[in-house]
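Section: Multi-chain targets

For targets with more than one molecule, the full set of components is provided together so that the structure can be written out for the assembly as a whole rather than chain by chain. Components appear in the order listed by the source. The example entry contains two components.
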Amino acid sequence: MGDGDQGDRPVVSLSPSAEYTPLDPAELDALRDLGRRWPPAGSRRGDLPLDPALGRFSDRPTASRFNRFAQVRLFRAEAPGELAATERAGRPQSRLGRSLAAVRRVAVGPPLTSAAVVQERMRKLVALPILSSDLISSVAYGPEAMLTILVLAGTGALGLSLPIGAALVVLMLSVGISYRQTIAAYPHGAGSYIVASDNLGARYGLAAGVGLLLDYVLTVAVSVASGIAAVTSALPRLAPLTIPMALVVIAVLLAGNLRGVRASGKLFAAPTYGFLVAIGALLVVGLARAAGRGFTPVPAPHESAMAGIGAVLVLRAFASGATSMTGIEAVSNAVPVFHPPEWRQARTTLSWMIGILVTLFAGLVVFAHIEGVAPSAHETVLSQLARRAFPSGPWYYLVQIATAAILLLAANTSFNDFPRVLYFIARDGYAPRGFLRMGDRLAFRNGITTLAVAAALLVIVFRASTQALIPLYAVGVFLAFTLSQAGMVVHWRRHRTGRWRHSLAINAVGAALSGVVLVTAAATKFLSGAWVVVLAVPLMVLLGMRIRRHYDRVGAALSHRQPTEPAGESPERPDQVRHLYVVPVARLDRAALRTLAYVASLNQPAFAVHISPDDEEDERFRSQWQAWGDHLPLEIIVSPYRAIVPPLAHYLAALHSLRPDLTVTVLLPEVVVPPGWQRLLRTETPRRLRRALRDLPGVVVGSVPMHVTP
Amino acid sequence: MGDGDQGDRPVVSLSPSAEYTPLDPAELDALRDLGRRWPPAGSRRGDLPLDPALGRFSDRPTASRFNRFAQVRLFRAEAPGELAATERAGRPQSRLGRSLAAVRRVAVGPPLTSAAVVQERMRKLVALPILSSDLISSVAYGPEAMLTILVLAGTGALGLSLPIGAALVVLMLSVGISYRQTIAAYPHGAGSYIVASDNLGARYGLAAGVGLLLDYVLTVAVSVASGIAAVTSALPRLAPLTIPMALVVIAVLLAGNLRGVRASGKLFAAPTYGFLVAIGALLVVGLARAAGRGFTPVPAPHESAMAGIGAVLVLRAFASGATSMTGIEAVSNAVPVFHPPEWRQARTTLSWMIGILVTLFAGLVVFAHIEGVAPSAHETVLSQLARRAFPSGPWYYLVQIATAAILLLAANTSFNDFPRVLYFIARDGYAPRGFLRMGDRLAFRNGITTLAVAAALLVIVFRASTQALIPLYAVGVFLAFTLSQAGMVVHWRRHRTGRWRHSLAINAVGAALSGVVLVTAAATKFLSGAWVVVLAVPLMVLLGMRIRRHYDRVGAALSHRQPTEPAGESPERPDQVRHLYVVPVARLDRAALRTLAYVASLNQPAFAVHISPDDEEDERFRSQWQAWGDHLPLEIIVSPYRAIVPPLAHYLAALHSLRPDLTVTVLLPEVVVPPGWQRLLRTETPRRLRRALRDLPGVVVGSVPMHVTP
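Its structure, encoded as tokens over all components, is:
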């Protein structure tokens, strides 16, 4: 077990250049071949009228312009043929763009260079709070979710919480041990997506990844809703503001995460350890009081049964309680961030986390049973327990504050994990490549924003109610657990190193138990919401496969290994290109003349086209053309139905179909006014024409601007 | 009086080529000059590799393509250098565009050629219903608007309707006679905008035009609301559907008018004459009954006074009643559509219309007084009168149907007039040139749609209530009357032909009376809604002046008479153009190679630029470039903050500022996939780059597409 057999697997690291797919060796060979068939170089560095490195070859004096030196100074020469852009060169040019950039800068901070992508390594005591907040915070809603189902069968059924809780503890231990093995086998990162893809194939890996992504969205929604519930339990007057408060919290998380993830260790330690202390104190004080009266359970306030006690109800309660386990996969995703030996430190951290989880979970279930607490719509179970343990003094409020704080951190953890999983999926081509892009703060802007928008939608649709969101939860995460553990079973069968039979058995048990929870959760909560996830997972897997197919086919078409030339496109070697330039002219003004001069200066075959609505205009234009001197051939198309763009597009298509070997370049004269309301007065024709010509093969479209400041 | 002094005024006719501003003689001279300085023609018709008229010069056989002949056949050779596009050539190419075009075709009919713009000439009996529906239909709400104000002072004040009505009749006759003179003086069309512009200057003309435009919007809103009120008076159960019904009617008018205006004569005759017969019968029967009881007025049902009788109330009632005169200007706008002698036929038609208006208006006011009818929220005054005249039988319903029908026609008239006035304003440059554009049905699509949207908004905001809309009415139209009559006073002082003193006196009286109504309406109804119009007119005049200034300055900048060369733009003569081509390359794939081949084939100075997020990618790209053979100079810009578009834009700006005499052409490789969801997966960089480079002078931007069908 260890590092030995990992050489062929991709190292789990994030890089800003992942967006740039490299050419494979076969492609490079084809490219070399192609290059040899090019005619000898036409343009040499010395032939250029200026130095592309922004020095100057030309000794000809040039008109001094106001902003010349400022612009040149935005770049720094690094080596021959290489410039480095300064941070200022990354700012937009337009006034609106600059203002927006300034606002962004205040909100999310100044840009960070690519060199700043250094993985911060963590010790166990620092890693624990960061990685465990998601898992440990789950006890704030998990036990309550279980009790909420049981109370449907009347308060008498609440006693079932003890055996169900015991079963959940067994599940936690089993999944935990299972993950310990995964960490050891995948020291470079043991995320469910990677493990399942690696062993079960892309389709299952994608399913696990989608399950995790949905889970992260739900973690944000549930944690925020639950954190707000901790606040409104203490201050009931805030209850009407639940949804707006939840949306504000998501917006703050969004802004914070767009800033990037630096300095997060210290931030996490206080709330997590605070929560541990608070719940620990609550359990100690509470159980001590209960011991004082001989652990006699207080009967819960009577509520009449709305359903009978049956197997389905018990299974539903079990599945709801299993939401306490969400977040258990955090350590396995993060193995590489530990100090070496990574896998061993990570494994120890995981064991501690499981221990803490089991203690808190079991303690809370037992305490709730002894105190006879029943779930209520107005106050969380944890808040009720805290009120009983600390009937007076500030302690109650401290528990509520710690709960809200750790839930906020848990939501924040998802903001870290969601874009990372999406990055890995996108790197394999199953998600849009935009999710590979690191913003100027080295944060995955697109992934972070997607998560925030999705969570905000969930909060609005489910009115920020934890109980309404719970049925959607657990399905995605247990799907990921099951597939990842099943992947490990396949892994051991393939590799057979060390005590593989023992390891296989442990992972098989983990997979089986997770699978049981998955099926239970999907089946018993199907109608109350799980159907959304059950439907979404296969659809998103399908979409992911379609996206991959798109990238594969585009990649193949753009590959130099492709044997055939695409029909009708501009050719691949300069000596094969035959030009024809076409200039559509609406009015023979200065803008048009500049375009005509541009074209004429190229010494290539060229002519002008004019579209006229009637014969009167036709003749008027022709006489102007002759007055000018008829320097280029002119073709007038009378369009008696007054359409402009479609006839021109059809005409160019007809030209191209007559001579598909020609590369037709359409150059449009374009009058450009400064941004503002006056742009609304300019004609839309160039834009519409560009769009219409976009789909024609072999037609190059450009525009020669003439700038007017009215 | 007559045609004699009209030679220098623009003929009021609509032409699809108005969009194409001709070059004036001085510009033509400058153009001729410029053309002489061009080097001898570079490209001759015979040099082209194919015949632009879509015949073929080249005898080289070409690959046969599926759609070649179909595309070529979309055009018909007319003369050397001239093609005519068929109707099919005007259809969009994309699948979505074709589907939308098919839907439009069903809704508004097939396209019409420009040659179909033939003004239909009308005889008086045909012209009367078409031109009078707006004016005559006003009696359906005018008298009621007057009574609604009077009843505020209690039912006792309703008796004031007789003297106020008499004053209004004097006003109608005076304005009518005034307009008779205008028609004679402006036989080519005597719209307020033209008359006021011509005599008082552009600013006043624009004010008159804006007044008319607002009036047309209100005519649609009021006529539709009033027509629906005629329906709900007869069928009160439909009352809750008032607003949806009004919107449906506006939508039907919109669709009908987008179809164009053909075959309208017959359509108009029946409802207009039907309304005349219906109201005539109502008056005869009603007055006959009243005669039977000796014309003793029936006392109106008592309502307590909400305001005292005072000068303000009387003036408000007068101004409200004056809405009966809206539409009086229709004939003067339409003089050229009459059979010759146009002005004489138009004048006679106007006299008839005034006669009918006065008869109906006076008859209804007297009849309402005798019958003691008070305005009610649930039933129109006209409906109450009809019920008294025809207590049984189908006659009552016929009156209501005729009323609704003529109001619908009146709204339709505005759909004709609004875009026409806007066309004249746009032709003078005070409104966006888009309003000059005739759609494929020869209808002014933009103007028609603007009117429908504005009227629909008014209907929604004012909940389709005629009484709420009335205070906005009348201000705009009396502004137009006043300015047009004042313009005529100036006209007579200038021209002094024939009995000019007599004519001047008549127009002066008309202007004075209209002015009094204008001030009265604006002042007494200011707070109840007229402030909207009082505010909107100057704002829109100001906007119009700003638009004109925009077009003037753009026109001057594009004029060949402009003495100076714009700084940094691509030059105006081919021998002055110095080229530099820059190809931004993200990845050295087939799309990039095609673009590089295109550039290399031009034999102009060229180099490639690559933006790299870090040094690793930088080196990888450089090695690929060398593998290919380093056929063009390469400049790599390391952008450590990962921005792509802004550094590239700044870099090109820096190049341009180093050598402003160069024309820099940026050619982007662009991968194009077919329209659909897959387009969402393509990068936005080319579009963003194009937008960022748009504002740089002297930078030409184009893209070389490579089409992929994934």
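Strands of chain A lie at 75-79, 82-85, 578-584, 606-612, 634-638, 662-672, 699-707.
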